Amino acid sequence: MSSTHLTRTIITTGDGSKTIHIPDWNENYHSSHGAVQEAKHVFLKHGLEQKRDQEHIRILEIGFGTGLNAILTLEAGLNFSSKISYDGIEAFPISMEEMKALAYDEFLATNELKAYYQQIHATSWEEAHEITPQFTLSKIQQEIQKLAFAPNTYEIIYFDAFGPRVQEDMWTQEIFQKLYDALVPGGIFVTYCAKGQVKRDLKAVGFLVEALPGPPGKREMTRGRKDE
Ligand SMILES: C[S@@+](CC[C@H](N)C(=O)[O-])C[C@H]1O[C@@H](n2cnc3c(N)ncnc32)[C@H](O)[C@@H]1O
């Protein structure tokens, strides 16, 4: 199913942070138990934190959406000595109005971070922008199915597509193989999804798959590692 032309509304999740809801699919951009909480648990704790000793951390996000994972990664990275390059793939970008209505700046501690979040949205697509001396962002407006990645390019992949219940075509072995190849040896793929078929498909393309405890309200999440 394609998510073009779907109505999007804004709802409040369990931790007080907002997310986008798609009524036609009864699907949210983040967990209804807490958007910020989920992002920090799945993508920062079990993704970014695992690579904090690297000089340069290259991250690919599938489903850039609201930019929440990007700003939280920029914020967390301020405590690292690493440089972060962040490539966000998004087929259907949100509008500035939606960005304002989400009010994620309420969850950002400093005016500097709030300004970085604005910049993350305001910068043009298809080119690299240095948001801070440490954090460079490239937003790419394209469907993942149509993209090719250079092999051995990323330390981490944040896989934040809509769930397989509503967008099965994002969770295929073909896409997982493309992402596996894009990772460096020892690179990791993290997703909030814990579906058995997804874990089997990740294994089938070569990932070493781990089931990890999920964020509050979700029993499990999944991490795949490319062999060293
Ligand atoms: C679960 S939401 C992403 C949430 C996002 N990471 C955030 O923090 O807001 C899934 C995203 O995937 C995007 N998407 C849908 N189909 C896509 C495709 N074929 N290729 C790339 N992105 C797609 C949607 O527009 C949506 O923004």
Using brief descriptors, characterize the structure shown.
single chain; 228 residues; alpha/beta; Rossmann fold; 8-stranded mixed β-sheet; 3-stranded antiparallel β-sheet; 6 helices; 11 strands; 28% strand; binds S-adenosylmethionine
Blueprint of the fold:
Blueprint: E1 9-12, E2 18-22, E3 27-28, H1 35-45, E4 56-62, H2 68-77, E5 83-90, H3 96-102, H4 111-122, E6 128-130, E7 135-141, E8 154-159, H5 173-182, E9 183-191, H6 196-204, E10 208-213, E11 220-225
In short:
The protein has 228 residues and is of the alpha/beta class. 26% of the residues lie in helices and 28% in strands.
- Total helical elements: 6
Helix content, binned percent: 25-40%
What is the chain-wise order of helices and strands?
EEEHEHEHHEEEHEHEE
Beta-strand percentage range: 25-35%
Name the average pLDDT.
96
CATH T-level fold name: Rossmann fold
Structural class, by secondary structure, is: alpha/beta
- Output the CATH class name: Alpha Beta
The CATH superfamily label reads: Vaccinia Virus protein VP39
Give the quaternary arrangement of the chains.
single chain
| Total domains | 1
Low-confidence spans: pLDDT under 50, at least 5 residues?
none
CATH architecture descriptor: 3-Layer(aba) Sandwich
What binds here, in terms of ligands, is: S-adenosylmethionine
Give the neighbour order of strands across the main sheet. Answer: 6-7-5-4-8-9-11-10
**Rounded Rg:** 16 Å
Q: How can the largest sheet be summarized?
A: 8 strands, mixed
